[in-house]
Amino acid sequence: MVSRKRILILGGVFLFSALMMLVSNHQVLSAVEDEEQLATGPGDLSPAPADEHPPAKALLLPRKRVSPLTREARKGKALYEYYCALCHGLSGDADGFNAYGLRTLGTPPAKHSDPSYMLTLSDTYIGDVIRVGGRENGRSPLMPPWGGVLNDDEITDLISFLRTLAQPGSKVGS
Amino acid sequence: MIDNKMRWTFVVASLLLLVFFAWQIRKEYNPPYLSYQRAFKELLVKETAGEEEIQGFKVGVRQRWIDGLNRVDRCETCHLGIEDPRFADAPQPFTTHPDPDTHSAERFGCTVCHGGQGLATSLEDSHGPVENWHNAIYHENLMENSCSLCHGDFIQDQAPVLAKGHEMFNAFGCRGCHKVKGTRRVKTGPPLTRLGEKVKKDWLHRWLMDSEGYFRETKMPDFRLANQEAADMVAFLFSRSKPVDVADEITGSYERGKRLFGEFRCLSCHMVEGKGGDIGPDLTMASSKLRPQWLYRWIKTPQSVWPETRMPEYGLLPQQVGDIVTFIEEEYIDFELEEEQIIEDLKLVTAGDPIKGKELITTYGCTGCHDIEGVEDRGEIGPELTTIGDIHISRLDFGEIHGAPENRTVPNWLYSKLTNPKLFKKELKMPDYHFSELEVEAMTTYLLSLRGEEISSSYILPLGEPPSDYVPQGEFGRIVRKYRCLICHKINGKGGEMAADLSQEGSRVQEVWLKDFMRTPYAIRPILVERMARFNISDAEIETINAYFRSTLVDDRVEGLSDAIEKMKLNDPDKVTSGKDLYYERYACHACHQIGGEGGTIGPDLTEAGERLRPEWIAYYLRDPKAFVMRSVEPVYKLAEKEIEDLTAFLMHPKEKK
């Protein structure tokens, strides 16, 4: 009798602890899931959005800026605006303020927003034109070499931004 | 029986206790970060890491102790891939840090830049804020505040938001009301003595009520005054003025004034109908604001009216001043201003109570920006901000605002306050500057950078250019102040960005050209809207300027080329011809520079280069275009010595003008 009871009790205890372990394991698992959601979501480390008070009574919080551009392209954008947009235009439409001058000299600047044209150019080739200039590549000598100003990483960044200009519906330059 | 029951209860209770005990132990051995470490190990397998690496992966807390920065960071307990380039595209928390080289985790840890709780080992605690641990991770838009800890506040290139915030703090005169140790209090507004001689009474009322309605870019904030309050303040400000001398009638010609207004390049500094510079106030509706007699005196000798003004002394003849005043009076009218509005404003102001007005002026701290006759300057009336960046949250008053606990952080308080200064309490004195979202972020970033934190000197690495303390002395200094040269030009790091840096001007330009240019300046860059104003500058002053340029504003690297230039035989026609080939064919310089009206418009016009520039300068510049202006858009061609000679010869050779 006694031994049977003992077996029952021991069995109950095992079951109970097994259940507990499952529960605690589940907690850990769900923590992972939560975190994955955070990671694949907007990746916002900032506190939660403003609460539902009327606007005047709520704290005002900085907003996360969303950019369709990658980190490289964002760096490239800054370089593009500084060095290239003067001729090629902010959105790559070949309408920078120096474009008129270049037209009077016979060669308008290349149009980076034109997909059918941009598709014919490889990244290596574009990088080469940026680095050593148009003349060495059989193009217009009006395009100067930038290899002495921009390093290879910067040129890669620049190209990744340049590529976004010819994508339909991604007018980020303007 | 009872014995038996008791025994059973005892057995069950002990077993429960045992289970609970076991469960607690298990929980201790299953800390929240463990799941991340397991997930990371799986990633390692996916990344086909070697067997050794996977076996070598040890579960446990990873901690870095950064002694020099007083930081102990356990962030890498979960952020396991921050130093490993294989995880660049991995999801957080494993993503590789984008800048592992200059800011390695080993030397800097994480929290010194990102904020948060380095010691915590759970997501909530480390990213914060949680009770008793208030330092949450910085919002990425405000993160540049941390740069100042090692690099100072003048980091234009690497931390533009922080630098902008710092600039704004000075420009908007925050220092007038808030003390920041180690900085000087500067009053950014004009003195308000004898205001009745300067402005019209009704205008002043409208200005106090809505300054942006008159001048959109003004730095005068919105105090959200009631109509009556503004009227009282006007009544006080006018009560101190001497009666206006109306005897002098201003006479002049509109046509001549219009020509002079253009000739003296007033638009370089003043905005009119959306066009022009932002150094002086907008003139679009100037006649509704200013009294012509005051305007006359102002244009004639601005610096005797306000010694700190940015307006130069043009040395105009009385008739010329009269013409310009006539032009401004007739041209720049507030067309939307109704007669009834003026009457209404005047009625309010006349009934204003000067005693109440003075009280209001004292309360709102107008003396933080303006010198006001009859009002004692009580110094900084706002809280000191020297260490606002690490103020404890409990010392900030959230007033009636009950934000979610996770939002109650110092950065969010500052951000909210700057967006709406009266948010926490209507009665707060700080006025509203109507900052844009980006401006609020910049200001918040700068304020967060004001910390009392001390770090090891081995971490100090100033970046950017701290303000120069160059002050030109003697006769040259007097001329520079009189014409306010440093508002547009920069010399030795001091001055504005609008015009050329003159630090090496003596090495750059030829004497004859300089003297001619000072008499009749013109735009050297073809597309420039702002160009140098014509001052009635005397020959003696020009001699002083030239002598100072030639003796002091020179660069030995350029001067050292004099002998080499002499040996170059720049007049050799062959050199000129091959230089021309290089200019047009090989390097296509005309893509950016014009000669004889032909070419691009990015760089300066080179038609007169031979008369303007010294050959030493041209040769040096061609060799190292970034020597003087780091951010010049000039490409670097790495020219051969022969090419530099030929190009210099060509540029020095006289050219046909258009």
In short:
The complex is a heterodimer of chains A (174) and B (658). By secondary structure, chain A is an all-alpha fold. Chain A contains six helices and no strands.
Features:
A: 174 residues; mainly alpha; 6 helices; 52% helix; disordered C terminus; B: 658 residues; two-stranded antiparallel ribbon; 8 strands
Describe this structure as you would to a colleague.
With 174 residues, chain A is mostly helical. The termini of chain A are far apart. Chain A has helices at residues 2-40, 71-88, 99-104, 115-118, 123-132, 152-165. In chain A, 52% of the residues lie in helices and 0% in strands. Chain A has 6 helices and no strands. In chain A, α2 packs across α6 and α5 (123-132) crosses α6 (152-165). Chain B is mostly helical and 658 residues long. Chain B contains 32 helices and 8 strands. Chain B has helices at 2-29, 32-46, 51-56, 105-108, 111-114, 123-127, 147-151, 160-171, 195-198, 201-209, 211-214, 227-239, 254-263, 286-289, 292-300, 302-305, 318-331, 339-350, 354-364, 410-419, 437-449, 474-482, 485-488, 505-508, 511-519, 539-551, 556-559, 562-567, 573-586, 609-612, 615-623, 641-652, and strands at residues 64-66, 71-73, 271-272, 275-276, 490-491, 494-495, 594-595, 598-599. Chain B has a two-stranded antiparallel ribbon. A two-stranded antiparallel sheet of chain B has the order 3-4. The interface between A and B is large, with 59 and 71 residues.
